[in-house]
Amino acid sequence: MQLDDDLRVGKFYTRGLKIPTLVGRLTDGTRIWGGPYTIPQLVIGVIALMILWQVVSRFLSTGFIITDAALILAGAWGITIAVGKIPETRRNFFYMSASSVSAVSAAKNGTFRGTPFKIRQPRLSRPFKTEEESVKAFEQAQQARLRAYEQFLASQGCSPHPATQEDPKPSTTTNRRSTLENIIAARPKI
What is the pLDDT of residues 49-107, one digit of tens each? Predict the structure, then answer.
């Protein structure tokens, strides 16, 4: 009685179980030192090796080829091990890259109705000045207004009539009371 012919084995892998492809031996069967490595580890390790070779040879050279080679190999191996420690996700690399780019290029303060929201810096209506500077600025502005008024009258064909000491104009200012004084004056006296 042979049941081996009727026996079928099925393997089902769900998305929850992701088995990485590992490279642990060379073509002659010897074990890779520090391995096994995943395919992304090997690819990034080779890229790191090439970049480190260029950077060290151009900018960070110690002057000794053996020291430089040891630094380059140690750096590439460290990067390869670090990549192996990164947990694998089920996210598509393209979508993850697009999300990272949009997060980096997004407006600092967000968007409002589809446009970047800009917060304006507060501006003072006029800068803080001392009392003397304020009086001087007021007098300059008053003189500029008087000159503009005289130019306007001259353009209209009228002659300006400055006020003289012999003919002073009557004062139109009255002694004003503050709001608090008005409230106190309006209260009935007991």
Answer: 999 999 998 888 888 889 999 999 999 999 998 988 887 776 777 888 888 888 888 77
Start-to-end C-alpha separation, the chain: 124
CA dist., res. 129 & res. 131, Å (int): 6
Query: Tokens 């420690």 — which residue?
Result: 85
Q: Are 27 and 15 in contact (CB under 8 A)?
A: no
Work out the burial of residue 36: count CB atoms within 10 Å of its CB; fewer than 13 is exposed, 13-18 middle, 19 or more buried. Answer: middle
Asked whether the beta carbons of 35 and 21 are under 8 A apart, the reply is: no
**In this structure, are strands 111-112 and 115-116 parallel, antiparallel, or unpaired?**
antiparallel
Burial class (CB in 10 A: 0-12, 13-18, 19+), 35: middle
The pLDDT value recorded for residue 15 is: 62
Q: Is the pTM for the entire model greater than 0.85?
A: no
Buried b (16+ CB within 10 A) or exposed e, 151-171: eeeeeeeeeeeeeeeeeeeee
